[in-house]
Amino acid sequence: MAIANKNIIFVAGLGGIGLDTSREIVKSGPKNLVILDRIDNPAAIAELKAINPKVTVTFYPYDVTVSVAESTKLLKVIFDKLKTVDLLINGAGILDDYQIERTIAVNFAGTVNTTTAIMAFWDKRKGGPGGVIANICSVTGFNAIYQVPVYSASKAAALSFTNSLAKLAPITGVTAYSINPGITKTTLVHKFNSWLDVEPRVAELLLEHPTQTTLQCAQNFVKAIEANKNGAIWKLDLGRLDAIEWTKHWDSGI
Amino acid sequence: MAIANKNIIFVAGLGGIGLDTSREIVKSGPKNLVILDRIDNPAAIAELKAINPKVTVTFYPYDVTVSVAESTKLLKVIFDKLKTVDLLINGAGILDDYQIERTIAVNFAGTVNTTTAIMAFWDKRKGGPGGVIANICSVTGFNAIYQVPVYSASKAAALSFTNSLAKLAPITGVTAYSINPGITKTTLVHKFNSWLDVEPRVAELLLEHPTQTTLQCAQNFVKAIEANKNGAIWKLDLGRLDAIEWTKHWDSGI
């Protein structure tokens, strides 16, 4: 059981996919669910507490674009309180190809920085106990929505980074897998900007094709957490959960 | 002929792979080779001029981490002088996983920003003539050197972005392909830092395996430029040039 009685940090746990996933997580009875998000939502936090009163749900404001040092400071507060953390979920993401710098900072650098920060507490080379990282990437990291090339590329980066983390597990003691949702009916995809307006109707066109609900995605997310498989590349699309086999085009040999 | 009598901008054309590629390019007789690089190297520029005196070789200092607006300003100076530009090569890259922010800024954001800037001159929706973009990505964008997860991820991002650009060609008139070198004997790979020192000997270990010379890489680079194939994912490894077929794990449907 990767959730029951565990301590979990969920970055962007109040977001589009995040909130339904937080609801499913608390149902599985973790000891602590620590939600880090940019903006507090006391009603949502209260609701999560009400779903399962045995779970301690806490909230800290957190912007993933801060420095590694800032992230480390916040994590220290959390580790000091909980003593151990078992799972970190990195879920911060924006979808707006007008905002090149911010897309890269949130979707890619944010994931790298929060991960880098938690290594100070988890890395077994420093006497840490190890841990598990679940990074929310995207199917657009496999194959782009080419009308949002910056978003898609930022997700390809997050995915590649996660695959590397998994291979580093023997060294660091920290395992990792990626959660790659397909088009999910969130406010994120309701309307968004394409790069240089190459396709002003991109959101509309996407939503003409089959999608999944945030609840379907959240339920499969929890299944992936319970599977707890280092290196897994989970595709959560159209209400299904499938593991992807990454193609080897090259091998560093080391 | 994609080089003879053409006007070419080469970002990082004095770099590890860049300089030998610039040498091969001038041999093929472009009209203009405009090299943008962070640091001038008058001896190298003089050498390029001497290889083929019919080619006009010019240099402008350029740091790819400047804003799109700054990049646009420099490109305006170049377009005002040359009137037309046929090919943009984006080759700026650093390999140092101690420097997370800079790796992302140079290898990923730099490629996106220079590309975004040139669209103002090339985009056919604005009456531009179109153009060709060759982005130097890396085989680590296919499959990481997991000891440098940030570098590898930044290259996965540049590759994904390039694949998207190619699909946008019918809209923008700008075609694109990626140049993905394997391990090439440059100063870049002589010694470099792994992420959190996960493998201090990463450079040494890599170089125990077969590599290629910068000349081999440069000669295949010129072949790829001459092939001029929109959407091609070129692998330049061990002295070979091969086109990669990207795996479809998902399709946006639009």
From TrEMBL, chains A, B:
Q: Which InterPro entries match?
A: ADH_Drosophila-type (IPR002425), NAD(P)-bd_dom_sf (IPR036291), Sc_DH/Rdtase_CS (IPR020904), SDR_fam (IPR002347)
State its Enzyme Commission number(s). Answer: 1.1.1.1
What would you give as a GO molecular function for this chain, any one? identical protein binding
Q: GO terms for biological process? A: alcohol metabolic process
Q: Which reaction does it catalyse?
A: a primary alcohol + NAD(+) = an aldehyde + NADH + H(+); a secondary alcohol + NAD(+) = a ketone + NADH + H(+)
Q: Which UniProt keywords apply?
A: NAD, Oxidoreductase
- Xref: SUPFAM superfamilies: NAD(P)-binding Rossmann-fold domains (SSF51735)
Determine the domain of life of the protein's source: Eukaryota
Annotated Gene Ontology cellular components are: cytoplasm
- UniProt-listed PROSITE patterns: ADH_SHORT
Residue ranges of the TM segments: none
- Give the protein family: Belongs to the short-chain dehydrogenases/reductases (SDR) family.
Q: How does it assemble?
A: Homodimer.
The name under which this protein is listed is Alcohol dehydrogenase
**Source organism per UniProt:** Drosophila hydei
High-level lineage: Eukaryota, Metazoa, Ecdysozoa, Arthropoda, Hexapoda
Which gene specifies this protein's sequence? LOC115482934
